[in-house]
Amino acid sequence: MNIAVCLKQVPGTTKVEIDPQTNTLVRQGIENIVNPFDTYALEEGVRLRERYGGKVTAISMGPPQAEAILRDALATGADEAVLLSDAAFAGADTWATAYTLSRAVDKLGPCDIVICGRQTIDGDTGQVGPELAEILGFTFVSYVSQVEEIDGEHMRLKRLMGERYEILEALLPAVITVVKEINTPRLPSLRGMAKAKSATIPVWGAEELEVDGNKIGLTGSATRVIKVFFPQRTQRAEILEGELPGQVDYLIDRLREANLI
Amino acid sequence: MEYFLSEQQREIKSLARRIAEERILPVRAELDENEEFPWAITKDMADSDMFRVFIPEEYEGLGGGSLELCLVMEELSRVCSGVALGYAATALGSYSLVEYGTEEQKKKYLPLIASGEKLTAFALTESTAGSDATNIKTTAVPEDGNYIINGTKQFITNGGDAELYTVVALTHPEKGIRGASTFLVEKDTPGFSFGKKEKKMGVRASSTRELVFRNCSVPRENMIGREGMGFPIVMRLLDRSRPGVGAQSVGIAQGALEAAVDYARERVQFEHPIIALQAVQQMLADMAIGVEAARLLVYGVARTIDSGAKSYTEESAMAKVFASDMAMRVTTDAVQVMGGAGYMRDYPVEKMMRDAKITQIYEGSNQTLRTAIAFELRKRKGRRE
User: Fold this and answer.
1) Average pLDDT, integer, range B291-306
2) B240 and B374 fall within a common domain
3) How many domains does chain B have?
């Protein structure tokens, strides 16, 4: 079974600055980490390989320093890794990112499952996974909390939907996004770290991926971030006073007004 | 402080710290309270290759020496020395094979230890043989190419949870301790059973049980080293493992020092954090000096062993005695700095104080080891090159 796992390097802090020109995150000069949700995706990929055999390839699109998270992925169980890096990819929105990733999945050869985290902690859109499935023409299932079984053509999945679980069967190949309930990511191993240190991680740019130049980076982005700002926190607490029965009547009226009861 | 660690040694240390902080810390108090064997953590440690550290590369290990083992012990013990003890006992139980095993024995067992599939234990102590290890009574009588073991081993770390046991028994009781030999006994061997799990003061995440042998037949090929060499073998193995107890002590003390400093910076009395009080400052400084001095002695002795030194009885005894006495003092002072809070189980230092006590007792009591140091001193007239 060929498994691809998508990983993204994100700022390891919430104190990020926004580039006023492009309205994208300024990524220079801050400590970067692997998007925490993606660590569950990698772990699930490694577990599926342990159960069904095959190969796990970690893919990341980002600047050259994103190679660090791919080395960590190799130390934590990925068999191979590839970095998608090119100045032309810069400023990509989710659709341009998904398009670029889809080219890499195609180039890797036959793929059974692509696993992504449910969302990143910087962009927070949760769109790359579904868009990637759309472009690849794969089945898509989001918020997967358990891969119950894979029997060649199908996989049986459990997914977390708000307050309920759904069990569903999906046709392969598929893209799934996973939630953190799915597993506990392992720590790296000493042997894996040694392997990761000496591994060669290929870097694929626009040329290697044979992408359509109009579909990548800022040019290929259908969306533009107009403004990024911190939301105003409006906490409106009302402290009730007076006799208890009066408070209860008032509270019920207010809840009715708000259509809450 | 520059400890001159290699890149690989720093990696081992930092991964051991991650295991300790991410996997052990959240369950430390619970393991201590319930006296639970930490199987889930053992699995995590195995997956991270921690059991490969002390196994030679030819047998699927990483070929680390005494220093690498000490680094792991220190980091695990900084968070929980009970968990660290189960790991150390496996290292001690495997040293007999690493040092004296035949090629067949090494090939058969060491890869299983390296992968963490099988834990090991080391069984010397008996009810009549503590500090006087020569007074063991367990026998292993030759019979039809096998040895029939009878007797009871006491206070055995990992007893019942380990799969492989290094057992010392008298093959020729008439020769006394010169008639002792060392055997590898597998857990499911008929005639081999376990006594009750001991309830301990500290290191409660480790298991301690009696091993009971009743006509337990062990094949000849399970003898480790030559017949009659049992006692010199175990003495040598203990010399080698004692820096590990030193590292365990350093780790416990480091954890206690950190907790005490954190508390002293936060705790306000007389309108200032108590770390502003000279009385507290003097205590914390002495604690820090002790930890650092013990760490350097332990690393120094571990490096001496790894350099291929022939004899290091005295040095390894010094590392163990100095570090364990330091750990007892530092953990006691950590409780004192933290006052009533330090005495409560909501804070970690009372556990560290309970845990520290055993380091002065096992692998040779500090009194016994001082006698050994004095014996060497007499021989070398106190001179150093």
Assistant:
1) 98
2) yes
3) 3
Query: Do residues B75 and B83 make contact, with C-beta atoms less than 8 angstroms apart?
Result: no
Q: What is the pLDDT of residue B190?
A: 98
Tell me which residue of B271, B224, B233 sits closest to B104, measured CA to CA.
B224
Q: Which of B22, B23, B49 sits opposite A189 (nearest CB)?
A: B49
A195 at interface of B, judged by CB pairs closer than 8 A:
no
User: A173 preceded by cis ω (within 30°)?
Assistant: yes
Q: Is 0.95 exceeded by the ipTM?
A: no
Residue positions of B annotated with a catalytic role = 363
**Distances, alpha carbon A198 to alpha carbons A59, A194, A195, A239, B57, in Å:** 18, 7, 6, 63, 18
**Selection from B316, B129, B315, B307 nearest residue B230 by Cα:** B129
In this structure, are B235 and B361 located in the same domain?
Answer: yes
How far is residue A65 from each of residues A29, A60, B184, B261, B294, measured CA to CA in Å?
11, 11, 51, 37, 40
Domain's final residue, options B197, B227, B257: B227
Domains of chain A: 2-215 (3.40.50.620)
Residue B146: count other Cβ atoms within 10 Å of its Cβ.
16
**CB-CB: which of B23, B44, B49 is closest to A190?**
B49
B125 and B103 housed in the same domain: no
Tens-of-pLDDT digits for all 261 residues of chain A?
999 999 999 887 666 677 777 777 676 677 889 999 999 999 999 999 999 999 999 999 999 999 999 999 999 999 999 999 999 998 888 999 999 999 999 999 999 999 999 988 877 788 999 999 999 999 999 999 999 999 888 999 999 888 889 999 999 999 999 999 999 999 999 999 999 999 999 999 999 989 888 889 888 898 887 877 767 777 778 888 889 999 999 999 999 988 888
- Check which CATH number belongs to the domain holding B297 and give it: 1.20.140.10
Best of A184, A186, A187 to disrupt the B interface (most B CBs within 10 Å) is A187
Mean pLDDT of B249-264: 98
Query: pLDDT exceeding 70 applies to what percent of chain B?
Result: 100
Structural domain harbouring B345: 231-379
Residues B64 and B140 in one domain: no
Rounded CA-CA distance B268/B137 in Å is 58
- Chain A, 72 to 111: residues with Cβ < 8 Å from chain B are none
